[in-house]
């Protein structure tokens, strides 16, 4: 069997994990907190019977928030356990907790750590958000009789091919799931190929998110006060900002004609991106320094968490981060729901269905290069009539695909057994 060999490798890699956590903790102190939990060692006591939701990072935690709202509407006294893999995910998840809820790191995927995790928390059901399926975790839940499901499930062609290459390891893991609830029919077909039991195609939870109306109102007021159209680079990734700032430095009209707003995907890169802009001769005003309206600068830097609705409301158009390098793109649904037109690059394989649907609905434009994206976004932002039409298409697109949260929560509680 291959899983014992995998377990041996994972156990042997634990010193490397500790080293990685120390290194990442220099930039993100959250990685240095509760380190023993990574190895299945948890303090205190835990009452059994919680609904356990694993949201590895920021995007999955935001999807979990939508599901949690619906779960609490359907079962108001439900207590949850939230687990995460990244510091940003855990920080975001802390805001979702209510009295009686718990939060922890998901342990490293060794049989011993998984056994300790399940023995300590004794969850009623486990919910993995979107993609996180680990062999020993799946096997441990099956052995302990904890139903484990994959919710808001997506699987790209690339990930499917990787899973099929490691079928002796991945197929039992997917097969141990009690159910997988897919975002799309294409995801469902790919999940079946890797061995999952697909219990339904429920859609994408992120369509059910409602942008914070206070953030929307503030963002629109700041956009109106800016005196010129605002173009945003949303959830930008390493390498993409360099290309943008080089283009702005080379063509001063691009920097002068509109107000640029850059919101990096990862908070540990805020300082790096600010310094990068300044090296290109661009002045920077950071959100963290605004006491009222944004301060004048070539580039506004969105260096805060939990304010994407504010940033989208500030923007007349947005470039989609992660889509101009082969990184798979970012979620564009929140942009559409906030009435912000999107210009995306060629690499959207992590959100292929949503990206194609948005393009077909006229809510997003696709271009081949970041240079084309800059020109297209500027042209869209300065054309008020066209901008309004694309923004309206985005709002209609986001509204048309709602309902995944209700379907997912209902199926989850049915499988867990309602109290």
Automatic annotation (TrEMBL):
InterPro entries: Glycos_transf_N, Glycos_transf_N_sf, Kdotransferase. One of its GO terms (molecular function) is transferase activity. Its EC number is 2.4.99.12. Keywords: Cell membrane, Lipopolysaccharide biosynthesis, Membrane, Transferase. The keyword tRNA processing does not apply. SUPFAM superfamilies: UDP-Glycosyltransferase/glycogen phosphorylase. It is found in: Cell membrane. Pathway: Bacterial outer membrane biogenesis; LPS core biosynthesis. The keyword Membrane applies. Residues 34-209 form the 3-deoxy-D-manno-octulosonic-acid transferase N-terminal domain. Coiled coil: none annotated. It comes from the Bacteria. It catalyses: lipid IVA (E. coli) + CMP-3-deoxy-beta-D-manno-octulosonate = alpha-Kdo-(2->6)-lipid IVA (E. coli) + CMP + H(+). Transmembrane segments: none annotated. Involved in lipopolysaccharide (LPS) biosynthesis. Catalyzes the transfer of 3-deoxy-D-manno-octulosonate (Kdo) residue(s) from CMP-Kdo to lipid IV(A), the tetraacyldisaccharide-1,4'-bisphosphate precursor of lipid A. Belongs to the glycosyltransferase group 1 family. This is 3-deoxy-D-manno-octulosonic acid transferase.
